Amino acid sequence: MNIDRLIIIQAITSSAAMMALQTFVMSGKYKQAILRSLMAAFGYATICHYLISAAVLAYLLNSGPVPDLLPLYAYPVISFILFGLVCFSVVLTVFGLTVTSLRIHILTEIADAGEPGIAETALEKKYSKREVMVVRLIRLTESGELVNRGRRYFPVYHRSYFLLHTFILMLYNRLYNLPGYARYWKSVGAKLLTGK
Amino acid sequence: MISVLASILLFIATLVIHIMVRRPNARSIGIGKVVADFAVACILAAVAIVALGEWFRDITPPLPLTGIAIYGFAAFSYVSFSASPFLGDESPSSVIVLLAREKGSMTLDDVLSEFPDRSIVDKRIADLISTGWIKRTRKGLVATGTGRIIAAAFGTYRRLLGLGETG
């Protein structure tokens, strides 16, 4: 048995399980809490991953002499690293783009219009700034990042995956000296990590 | 085992070198250069991972495929994450939360005043045209063959997730 190939097969299998679980979880109560649903699916998939790892190890140990002893015992850890990276790649590309990317929504809209095409003014009307922002305010309120009282929205001071994601985006822009989020770095920046 | 360790250390080294080399002109290089940088890095890293695995074969069994896969997926994730900052995008949701924390509270009008009037749709349409996924005709915007395939794939997944329309 080639441990090298086995690690890759298991990482991909566990990632497929994660995507299936993600579809299931998203269609349930976590529809607006996207990052929370992702983490829930990843948690369930991790349990599946270690159960499969235990089964594979038991099979290998019972199937005769084991030539590569060290990788065999490191197998669950290494395959978990690869599993995590495959999940992260899929989430960033397929899932992230599908759920939140306005570019993909606009592309889908244009493709659905078929050959005559769609006027830019119609798109601007449908994806107006107000419409896009209202959807995001609802999503952020339902996911617990904001609280809505009357016409005002208040931030929720806590630690969350969304704030961590935002902090990483800000840090990334700062590391490369890119302009994104620069105006918020001094006033909000590191406070995102402390939850204050 | 050495292949796995090598792939992790090589990836960290690649990140440090990439930030140091690209930081001075990052605002002008675009995502294409970042993709090219990491494609070259992947090839070099694959050679190093295989070579190191063979070199230390007597001490620990090599795992070249795993090592290359770890480096490859880490690089792919990093490039995917880089797309938005290098395209000059800010996540509207992140900006809303940052604005709320800066001001203490805000209304919908406060949020709207933070974003330029036409930029949200215009910039995305310009990006879709430059990638060749849509084109401008006399009647309006039309999806190209590639654009239609991509839209169908994402649309199917979106329906599986049971999501609504607006992004």
Question: What is the count of structural domains of chain B?
Answer: 2
H/E series of chain B: HHHHEHHEEH
- How many domains comprise the coordinates of chain A? 2
Low-confidence stretches of chain A: none
- Specify the helix fraction band of chain A: over 70%
Q: N- to C-terminal separation of chain B?
A: 43 Å
Main sheet summary of chain B: 2 strands, antiparallel
Termini separation of chain A = 52 Å
Largest sheet of chain A: 2 strands, antiparallel
Number of strands of chain B: 3
Keywords (chain A): Membrane, Transmembrane, Transmembrane helix
Transmembrane segments (chain A): 6-26, 38-61, 73-97, 156-175
Transmembrane segments (chain B): 38-56, 68-87
Keywords (chain B): Membrane, Transmembrane, Transmembrane helix
Topology:
The complex is a heterodimer of chains A (about 200) and B (about 170).
Chain A: H1 3-26, H2 34-62, H3 69-100, H4 102-113, H5 120-126, H6 129-142, E1 146-149, E2 152-155, H7 161-175, H8 182-185, H9 191-194
Helix pairs in contact in A: 1-2, 1-3, 2-3
Chain B: H1 2-22, H2 26-55, H3 64-86, H4 92-103, E1 106-107, H5 108-114, H6 119-130, E2 134-136, E3 141-143, H7 145-161
Antiparallel strand pairs in B: 2-3
Helix pairs in contact in B: 1-2, 1-3, 2-3
Short structural description:
With 196 residues, chain A is mainly alpha-helical. Chain A is built from nine helices and two strands; from the N terminus they run ααααααββααα. A two-stranded antiparallel ribbon of chain A has the order 1-2.
